Amino acid sequence: MKFPTEFISLFFRRLSKKNDLGSDFAGKQNRVFGTVLPVRTALTFLGAIFLIFFSFKVFRVDWASALDAFKTLDIVKYFIAFIAYYLSFLFRGLRWKIISFNSSALDRSSDGDSILNHASTFQYSALVLSGWFVNSVAWLRLGDVYRAYCLGVISKLGFSWGIGTLVAERFLDMIIVFLLILASLTMLSSGVKGQALDFLVIFAFIITAILTIFVSSLAIADKRLVSWLPIFLRSHYSKFKIGVLSGF
């Protein structure tokens, strides 16, 4: 799974040299992401071009229709949407940075906490982008698991802690989505009703409720629950719990 992040690892090769912690973050990311090899990259591009060409031949793409559709495209709006979409990764990276730094209260004296403290928003954004890339080629949103693994390795706080930060991120996502849906419904006229809207509100409420119950259960659970777990799971559970609860 090194391939998706080979290209973005170029951005981490020469991190700011103002402190050793930044260099440490960059070095760890390079080890996680792998080394960029020009020959391998060129072969990857050639392979992608061949697959695209082969797909067009097999499925017999109607180039005339495609060209007509392209002519109706508003280039300015498309360009604005393109820029806005990729700029959103900066905000996603900033949010994950705040969550992960708050969650690193696991050990404020650890190297992992110092590394996270000195990591840039751009670096987090690149991790998020790499996860989205993996999601586009893998099933079950494995890209999220992949970026959690990367952050856990880089920070030395472990994979279970990284997954915990993702759960905290998803919990915030669902709360915001639910509130936005409610706000949108209030803006609609009273005459606008439909089964789809009812289903959307109910589904958002159920998901938010499930996540709220789960997070609340983690907060309420005491040490007796940990004692019931197998010994090899106790440390993972503790890190996961800190990753979830300390991120807010």
Automatic annotation (TrEMBL):
Keywords: Cell membrane, Membrane, Transmembrane, Transmembrane helix. InterPro entries: L-PG_synthase/AglD. The chain crosses the membrane at residues 37-56, 76-94, 115-134, 146-168, 175-193, 199-221. It is a multi-pass membrane protein. Signal peptide: none annotated. It is found in: Cell membrane. One of its GO terms (cellular component) is plasma membrane. This is Flippase-like domain-containing protein. It comes from marine metagenome. The lineage of its organism: unclassified sequences, metagenomes, ecological metagenomes.
